[in-house]
Write a structure and sequence with these properties.
The structure is a homotetramer.
Chain A (H helix, E strand, L loop, with lengths): L1 H16 L20 H9 L3 H18 L2 H14 L4 H13 L3 H11 L2 H9 L5 H16 L5 H15 L6 E4 L6 H10 L7 H9 L4 E7 L7 E10 L6 H5 L12 E9 L10 H15 L5 E4 L6 H9 L9 H7 L7 H6 L5 H17 L11 H8 L3 E6 L6 H7 L3 E5 L2 H14 L2 E2 L2 H5 L18 E2 L16
Parallel strand pairs in A: 4-5
Antiparallel strand pairs in A: 1-2, 2-3, 3-4, 6-7, 8-9
InterPro entries (chains A, B, C, D): Malonyl_CoA_deC, Malonyl_CoA_deC_C, Malonyl_CoA_deC_C_sf, MCD_N, MCD_N_sf
GO molecular function (chains A, B, C, D): malonyl-CoA decarboxylase activity
Pfam families (chains A, B, C, D): MCD, MCD_N
Chain lengths: ~475, ~475, ~475, ~475
């Protein structure tokens, strides 16, 4: 008898544990067998009965969402957008009360009345074990639908706010990624690498295992095997001027200690965390850790791509552009149309010097003078590093002759340098005036015709002032 | 030369690392040496420069707060209350716009305008390593000041909302506490135990180490050595009717497997997390884990205190009370005034039966009939377990003859039983009607005169309906 | 001043820590710079000064051995063989004293006098951090030299005895290998797999990651990233008759739980641990763990190769063999000479049945009747499993059509079954009489002409008695 | 049907797993229920069937030994002593063969014939999970019986040899003990502390938790919660001259970094590992680790007890002693008989100077001149540190006024100093000539009359030569 009871007890428990959870669900939620709809479950979760069976409902709902078709998920997002809204009458009442008599109390009531129930909804959804990762995945799905359905933007705004709170830097854990890391994480590194593709496990090993290579990632405790962002670092003896010197296996023969930490790839991993910035925290933490562990390091630089340079060059060359390009330079640049130009440039064929000079000049203009509509540099990667307080250190000709490198940037790569003595100053100048910190070498590559007025009178300035007011605030999430 | 640079570089870094952080702080924040004020730092943190030096400012501010006097901290809380408010003009504008034309967009603007900057403030404060624990500690300090300064309640409301988000159950980790647990955590268990005091390490060992004793706690990844809540469990062969049978060292001689898991102590640990409920999740998780690991378990009960019973008895006996007490019972209860009554009752002295009958009758009334202003049971612990779906299983006479047990409850303890087959039903009935689930045995102890009308006509009901409408929602945080 | 001292102190320490250790070495050990010879260091290690500087000497010696040429290492082994011997005069004296008066004391002296100083030598060598792995590597080198230099066998015997003591099963740790395992270990699994080659990381993942695949390995605490032996297991619904059904990705569509654990690959990893048996312990431990974790399992079998079957068939077919083969079978078997036989057999071409019958008959003879010189089964893998108490359950035709499978066993694979109810009986019968436990099905495949006398009179026996006395003792280390 | 089989299968397995193991044992081992005798099991373990059921037999035997009475265990030890011996006839044959023709082969046969079967017995016993700790415990029991039964010494010799192999330094793991250490280990620290008693958990915390206190222990992977030896360290600003300055809670007010690591307690934990030395390895490892982690450390010293000083003083004062003591000193020393002498000395009562001078003079003699029969220093602790290469740095008057400190050493404690620059030299001099390295200060406290001849002629020597030949070899295991 007791046996029977226990079996039933255990089975019920197991039903719950086995993530089916229906044993714990209010019976009313189920029509036909398995017929609980996503919307019914969503309403149940919000109903307030949640405390007793909330975990089970949340789990059940997440399971249904995982099995759902794209169309069903879209319906779910629309339900969130349309139905999980503050009660308009309550908002209106509270707004009127506040206008009548602004006070702590009427403000609190207004905040409460206008508080989005979606925040509470996702908070309850997160009760289930493993929910956080699934919520992040939901958002990456949601983002894809926004273009076609603007009303979903409000759902996304709530979700971004919630995830910003949950993924606060204080909750992130920095972990070194190396050859002792579980394969389940390493395969994510291969998959998420967004800058210089990792070609399988041998290539991965070459980037992680040698004692002069490092990789670090931020993790969140609730996303066990999922890196949020990672950076790959090479410990070298000088600032590299081409990606090949970082990625190939060659090393100096002697054992002299490394002096230069080169950040050559930073990749964000989670589309569902779009808009939440980790990169600046990651870089600073890694700089601190490396400086402590490798006493010989003196220099911290990147070797970064220039993702929109080629597109910008096209526009600059187009008629109507206000980018000043001399006829000679224009002539030299026309070689770029010949796909063989790289080969020939590598052989230093006639005309190479001219092409290099023209292209580097344009590059200097691209970084130092050109601005997008928001009066900030055109280049996403530049915005990220300059916003962090780095300075543009060097332009590297023919640094990435890969198909992607040529297509995006005519082979150009650049170094940004993190010099602790000027990080704060650079950041402030960039944030308030849009000033781009750049080395004298880079500034000297700017063609005279392009120099903004007055520049020649302040030859010792390290940084170029922007042409106007940059908006302050968080740099957008970008990738080097 | 390079050496010199590096030394300076490393020193600056170390300054930052060593949590002094001033090297990274905008110079303007400092007047005289060490003279950066809490308010100046707080404004700097909110200023938006935060991205470059936010971590350092947050760390510096937390350090200053730790060193601050109680008065200085109060000033800080007042600064938060007064200065970190939404801009009233913006709120008013947005309120008017919404009233003029309620839409997704005007709602979003209203939400944004009325959004409390304190939430952002604490989010930035949490950038610093170890900040979460310090913020929780700040709140436990803040709570103490609210009584004397009502304006701080708004700060607390923001903080509670934020901590509710951060300490979502999905982020909590259940860990077993046993004799393999680090001493740094064990001493917290001794310190935080709130129900049956732990008298030193030997007493602790008796509760953790034997194979028929368990202890589980919830932890948050950002509060490394700090349990949030923990429960102590005894695996027994029957439902115990006195705390001594749980706490003393005696055991049955044979090796028969345990059938009954007894939750005899649940303690919340962090005053700074007041109002954020973990107990129901903890109990459910532990029931699941125990049922899986100890196959012989069939029954899950508590042995719980009745913290406000004695106080309620006093009021019931006072003139003007509407609790019906017969003259004979009143006579029997008068013995409680004699401090020796326990001794005599233990010896079964004349009059003991009468006292027991009277007291148990009152206890049944206390649980089944009496209600507080919110129309829920008077007893905090009862609210917690009944709200979780448990049923009141047994009243135990002379179950806790300790000084505290006598003072608070005339020695009474009770068992609540978690029976999976009825948890959901009990919870729903309690949430919607205030119905108290109770065993027939408990109901039969209710004196006839006290029974609500109609009760005798439904002898098979397991639960007593409440006398009115209970408010639905989360049970208050309570301790057994 | 103090500063100076400390710098020097720290430098000396670092010198030691940096595994150069010369600072701690007796000066006499060094002639010219770096000129400490392996022999000089070896003598120093044995000299008894060892207690003060033993760790440093051991580390230095191991470093030198790592850098040594093959010839230098051979010299080192010869030094061990020739010079690290018991003193012959002492041995002779002790032998005489024992013969004069055998007693506890004279025996103890004889043991001491004849005790090999090499055991003490390796014990001291193992003082250095990381030494154990290097000693194991040394032995795998030593073993290669034995063939050409018999005197080294004595060194190997000592080393085997020592490693047998160090790698006692009580010190081994069983760890599951899965997709959470560090890459540094996984690449060893790929490298060491000796039965069915693992073709890269994707293939590895298919063997480790699915929830119906398992892999377990023994580790020794002193060999951190080095598995000693590992077994790959498939959880299936029936005993497989071909390796393809294990290795390909297909699965049953429904979710019915697995009933059969199939051990399809066991690989020893360390040549330096040759002769030290782990396989039987590993299998038993894994059977226990799986039976506990996967409640639906009822059957534990292998799918094993038959590594010397093809070679034995060649001998059986040769003139002078005493294996009875009918003319028809001989005719059928001649098809094996045509490399296309597999293809045709797969298509069930004419003659396939005859070939199968002949080959299976020979296989039954190979396992049940044929014996090697030591009167045990010819097959190494069979010796291992039969010695462990398994029974030969089934012969599988065309089970491994890989190049290796055809070359070694004409495609034959077999299942051994571990049936707890008869493990002990099978083991004892095998150990004492050489009896081969086999299923009735296998026995029935034995051609009548080949059956040993009297067999037909005991049709119910599960096992065939051997033809004579098997030597008892540890089965040799073998691989399935 | 399959169900039934599985239940039985699982039950059998569980029987084995539950360490009862009888299901796997050869039936012949059991007479009546539970009646398997220790001797029968021991013989079964040695019988060679061991491979199939060895683990189960070993576990069963260990269980029986744990339940056995002291008398039964003694019988077991006698069985090992008497029955598990090499076969005398085989030994005699092999001895004769060796004498006839000494060669590698005859030597190997002699080694094999005289090899103690007890080594193999314990190797097999160690197959069971957790066996190593139980074998160590067995030896601590065995050691107690040796005095009364000399034949057991041979068993102990085998066991010591085996444990020396198993507990090789290469297998030990150094772990820091602090407030994060599991309570199960910390309570062992309290229990095993052998020098300055730890009075409960608060006292323990004072020794482990402050940032200027350290504790390190060696562990063996097979003895999970059992430290083998541990050392307590105080990081101070000068070499302490009394134990109170180490143990009390007072600290300097400023934050100046520590310069001096003081080893004030080393305790061996396992009686069963008697004779196996860990102390020297522990000290060296800890010195290395501390020097690396705490850059400000310049000095490594002990504050050590002098355990047999008082006993030696009694003998020195007795008639017939050859220790030269002047009449005045003898008079001063007579005060020691008055129990109040310490109090008075603390108050600097008249006569204190004379007493101090006399006692310190004797102490210098005790360390520098007195020798035991083996021509080494009388003091066990001195032997340990001097053998490790330390030098006697200072004699501390009234350094330990505890009851034990007065009883054993009239309050005397000493500092030994580990100076890397002279460790090797000191060790060699001590090992070969018995020379005691001592500071000039200590040497100057030697009374002129006691100085060995010629000493005055070599005032610059740091060390006193011994009076004869010390035996070289491992210092005995001693405790400071």
């Amino acid at each position: 008898m007791a046996e029977r009871v226990n079996v039933s007890f255990f089975q019920e428990l197991m039903a719950a544990v086995a993530e089916q959870g229906r044993a714990l669900l209010p019976k009313a939620l189920f029509g036909e067998a398995g017929g609980e709809s996503i919307e019914v479950l969503s309403r149940a979760l919000m109903s307030g009965r949640g405390e007793a069976s909330g975990v089970a409902i949340a789990r059940q709902l997440l399971n249904q969402l995982k099995k759902a078709t794209s169309e069903e998920r879209l319906q779910f997002f629309r339900f969130l957008a349309d139905d999980l809204q503050p009660n308009p009458a309550h908002v209106a009442d509270a707004a009127r009360a506040y206008l009548d008599y602004p006070s702590d109390k009427t403000l609190a009531k207004l905040q409460k009345a206008s508080y989005s129930p979606r925040l509470e909804f996702f908070r309850r959804l997160n009760l289930a074990a493993g929910a956080t990762a699934e919520i992040v995945a939901l958002r990456s799905d949601l983002v894809r639908h926004i273009k076609s359905d603007e009303a979903l933007a409000a759902v996304d705004a709530d979700l971004e706010r919630l995830l910003t709170s949950w993924f606060n830097r204080g909750f992130l854990v920095l972990r070194r990624i190396d050859w002792q890391t579980p394969a389940a994480i390493l395969e994510k590194i291969i998959e998420y690498e967004a800058v210089h593709e990792i070609r399988g496990w041998d290539d991965l090993r070459r980037r992680l295992d040698p004692k002069d290579r490092r990789c670090f990632a931020f993790f969140h405790p609730a996303l066990v095997d999922e890196p949020l962002i990672f950076v790959e670092v090479a410990l070298m003896r000088e600032m590299p001027d081409a990606i090949a010197t970082v990625l190939d296996g060659r090393r100096p023969e002697d054992d002299a200690p490394p002096t230069t930490a080169v950040f050559y790839s930073i990749s964000n991993c989670q589309d569902g965390l779009k808009g939440i910035s980790f990169g600046n925290f990651l870089l600073k933490q890694v700089v601190e850790d490396l400086a402590r562990d490798v006493a010989s390091l003196r220099t911290f630089v990147t070797l970064s791509p220039v993702p929109s340079f080629a597109r910008w060059v096209d526009r600059a060359l187009a008629s109507g552009s206000d980018v000043p390009i001399s006829a000679a330079d224009r002539q030299a640049l026309s070689r770029l149309r010949d796909p063989r130009w790289v080969e020939e440039a590598a052989k230093d064929a006639p005309g190479t010097d001219e092409l290099k000079s023209a292209l580097m000049g344009l590059a200097a203009h691209y970084f130092l003078v050109a601005r997008s509509n928001d009066d900030r540099p055109v280049d996403q990667v530049a915005r990220f590093h300059l916003g962090n307080g780095a300075r543009l250190e060097r332009l590297n000709w023919l640094a990435d002759p890969s198909e992607k490198g040529l297509r995006e940037a005519h082979g150009l790569m650049v170094n940004y340098r993190y010099d602790l003595a000027e990080i704060e100053r650079n950041h402030e100048a960039y944030a308030y005036d849009g000033t781009v910190a750049a080395s004298r070498a880079v500034r000297s590559q700017l063609k005279p015709v392009a120099k903004p007025k007055g520049l020649s009178t302040m030859p010792d300035l390290l940084a170029l002032p922007g042409t106007g007011k940059a908006k302050k605030g968080r740099p957008e999430e970008t990738k080097p």
